[in-house]
Amino acid sequence: MPTTEQLCDWDQRHYWHAFTQMANYQPLVIERASGCWLYDTEGNRYLDGVSSLWCNVHGHGHPRINTAIRAQLDRVAHCTSLGLSNTTGIELARRLAELAPGNLQHVFFSCDGSSAVEVALKMAFQYWRQCDNPQPEKTTYIALGNAYHGDTLGSTSVGGIAQFHAMFGPLLFEVLRIATPDAQRLPDGIKPAGACSHYLGQLEQLLSERHGEIAALVIEPLVQGAAGMVMHPEGYLWGVRQLTRQYNVLLIADEIVTAFGRTGRMFACEQEHVVPDLMCLGKGITGGYLPLAATLATEEVYSAFLGPVFPPPGENQKTFFHGHTYGGNPLAAAAALASLDLLEEEQVLEQLPAKSAQLATILSHCQALPQVSATRQIGLLAAVDMQVETPHARAENDPWQDARLAQQVCHEAIARNVWLRPLGSSLMLVPPLAITHDELELLGKVLIESIGAC
Fold first, then answer.
1. How does DSSP assign 357-403, residue by residue?
2. Where in the chain is the domain with CATH 3.90.1150.10?
3. pLDDT computed for residue 392 by the predictor
């Protein structure tokens, strides 16, 4: 077996990590995991405070999911979804259709959240050329300020975080951008009670002027994750659904972060009784075990893609010419089915209110610290904003000082055996849904100690 030193050397030489500045990267090499804990090659353990990038639901190494994957290995590890199917993928498609709100009955599998959004964007574009009342002039998308929907070119185009996306501007298509509907940081003169109507008014003005060219609006329902857990005003999602229906624009709900119980319901859209036209799923769909994503479509959208294999002269094939080699992979589907079983059998959603309340208490203690400017939470999604608050410590013309503080807090937490990762100047708290109350207490204790140490 290679030593930790060898692994770290190979890691720095050969492994190019995502969203990581490799010039100053210092490896922390994980060898195994169990429950909500990660174990490095030296035997140290770390509470997984970010669910291994917001995807782990039931903890690591859950025997039910492990058994399901092993059993599927004895049947078939992979077969293509291009004109072929497999029993496990079929079962998962049916299960997702049954769980999804409204008539989202048709499931297109891919391998990651970015791809699921890419699929939805292309479906919306093609839909308006093939529906019963074709409107080929509908080619534009509306997206929110500071949105994040992935890193493929289409999903990056509808993204709006300059730090991530500005470099690729020449490669991207233009979108219509509306203001981030931030319930916490409101424009001057706007009171909390009027925030929802303010933001919806901006959207309605845009739709009334340009709905004839808009194919779809893309939204992360209730909360924008990579924007720093930006929480939307209550009722905003419902209002967006009403306006998109009124102006004949498709609604794409990016539930990659928010689905599978993360906000307290199976899907965040259910919190405001909203049924989108297309819904994107990823991350927690397999419980955080294997790559899988899905785009769910309504019957109306799906039916626009049905037609003859060999159409008459002058007519186009309506087939959706898009696919992924490992889309609907049986191993991933088996993990997803086991995860859905566990959500029901272990009453995960029923236990969330108590855990959410405990996390709220932790955040209230954080809010009292001078280094904390704000906190936000929905379910087991939370953020703590850091600030260098003392005048002598705050440097002029340094836009990174709060981000450095957040990174320093994470280093302190790791030294106390809790794994956290900053997002800009914010600390993201996204523990596995399976976290125990004792583990949540530890997370809060270490977080407060780590902030105090900076």
1. HHHHHHHHHHHTSTTEEEEEEETTEEEEEE---STTTPPTT-TTHHH
2. 4-58+347-452
3. 58
Indicate the CATH number of 4-58+347-452 among 3.30.1050.10, 3.30.420.40, 2.160.10.10, 3.90.1150.10: 3.90.1150.10
How many Å apart are CA 318 and CA 65, to the nearest integer?
38
CB distance 426 to 420 below 8 Å = no
The terminus-to-terminus CA distance of the chain in angstroms comes to 38
Residue of 404, 324, 387, 376 lying closest to 116 (CA atoms): 324
pLDDT of residue 4: 97
* 400-441 residue pLDDT tens: 899 999 999 999 999 999 999 999 999 999 999 999 999 999
Closest CA to 354 of 432, 440, 269: 440
Mean pLDDT for the chain?
A: 96
Is 325:292 a contact under the CB 8 Å cutoff?
Answer: no
pLDDT at 368 over 90: yes
pLDDT band at 398 (very low <50, low <70, confident <90, very high): confident
Q: Which tokens hold the place of 281? A: 């799923």
Tens of pLDDT, residue by residue over 11-24, are 999 999 999 999 99
Coil, strand, or helix at residue 78?
A: coil
Residue 428's DSSP bridge partners are 383
CATH 3.40.640.10 in the chain is located at 66-345
Percent of the chain with pLDDT over 70: 98
Cβ atoms of 270 and 322 within 8 Å: the answer is no
Residue 28 sits at φ, ψ, to 5 deg, of -130, 105
Q: Which two tokens stand for residue 308?
A: 């003859």
**Contact (CB, 8 A) for 388 and 401:** yes
How, if at all, do strands 278-281 and 214-219 pair? unpaired
The confidence score (pLDDT) of residue 316 equals 86
In contact, 59 and 432? CB cutoff 8 Å: yes
**Is the pLDDT at 90 greater than 80, yes or no?**
yes
Give the CATH number of domain 66-345. 3.40.640.10
Q: Report the distance separating Cα 398 and Cα 421, nearest Å.
A: 21
